[in-house]
Structure prediction request, 121 residues.
Amino acid sequence: MSDKQQGKAKRLLRRKYGIRKTLNGTSDRPRLSVYRSEKHIYAQVIDDMAGRTLVSASSAEKELGLKHGGNVAAAKAVGASIASRAKSAGVSKVAFDRNGRVYHGRVKALADAAREAGLQF
Prediction:
């Protein structure tokens, strides 16, 4: 990694840990964690108190039938999928964890789609 890439990675981690200090998933309000890579986007609903993942969804899953996983359309599909899975697991309220990323683009599209599908945060 070059010095510039290392600096960006350090800043991302600093933002991520700063957010995680105040944000915590409980059994009443689990954490909706979003991870964004270049090719895909992943979402998990996590109960931090019990230390387990309740439901998850990603653009790499065959069931969603996505041609490309790294775009806004894929993020919307994953947001709708995670919301429906969370509701079937009995979760209606979540705490949104953007994982240090800016609330923009794919992260925002996933959040908006999850809200439209019925999750509250």
Summary: The mean pLDDT is 95. The chain has one domain: 3-116. The longest strand covers residues 41-47.
